[in-house]
Design brief:
Strand order of the largest sheet: 1-2-3-4-5
Strand content: 5-15%
Largest sheet: 5 strands, mixed
Radius of gyration: 22 Å
Number of strands: 5
Order of helices and strands: HHHEEHEHEHHE
Structural class: alpha/beta
Shape: globular
Helix content: 40-55%
Length: about 190
């Protein structure tokens, strides 16, 4: 009788494992939506970056650390134009690439900035390693759109200190950055 109980328990465990392998249809639908959104946003971000001379010389392998790593860690703040009846599904207006880093990663970013490295390279785990917010780049078509993307970004990164890559200071008017409470880092060394 004991053996029958054991067989029954093993059968229940096997049935439970099989059921766990099959996803609930609602969960499967949500996973498919997330995958689709990641693919769509990745494509939009890459297309926008292709329009900017500062990214045209990047290698295909660089897309991992430039777009995918920050996107998967919610460090790509995408801004959309106001909704209108004429454009039910608008393209993005632009996006901000940012990180919330530890003091150690902050020091590495500062070293890269001082050495004139662009784009800044971070490891996957660095993007969300601490409370120090860095705005590393804004990808947009013009100064007005860049300003709108930065304003939207500040709503995303509401708390904590905000540090800027020196590139940002050339993309918009200094007054806008001062209103946001942004702080400049030391400028990158100029090649000479």
């Amino acid at each position: 009788m004991n053996a029958g109980t054991n067989d029954s328990a093993e059968g229940s465990a096997a049935a439970g494992a099989a059921a766990a392998q099959q996803l609930d249809p609602e969960v499967a639908r949500k996973i498919a939506q997330v995958r689709s959104a990641v693919r769509e946003n990745f494509g939009k971000a890459v297309m926008a970056m292709m329009m900017l001379p500062r990214y045209r010389s990047q290698m295909l392998a660089d897309l991992q650390h430039l777009v995918l790593d920050p996107m998967l860690r919610d460090r790509l703040a995408i801004a959309y134009p106001p909704k209108s009846d004429a454009a039910p599904a608008p393209d993005m207006a632009g996006f901000a690439i940012w990180a919330s880093v530890s003091e150690e990663v902050d020091a590495r970013i500062r070293e890269q900035v001082k050495a004139g490295v662009f784009p800044v390279r971070l490891k996957g785990e660095d993007w969300t390693s601490g409370p120090i917010n860095w705005l590393l780049d804004v990808v947009a078509t013009d100064k007005a759109t860049t300003a709108a993307v930065i304003a939207s970004f500040r709503q995303v990164a509401k708390s904590g200190e905000l540090r800027l890559h020196p590139l940002i200071t050339r993309l918009v008017e200094p007054e806008l950055l001062e209103k946001m409470g942004a702080r400049k880092t030391e400028p990158a060394a100029q090649p000479g």
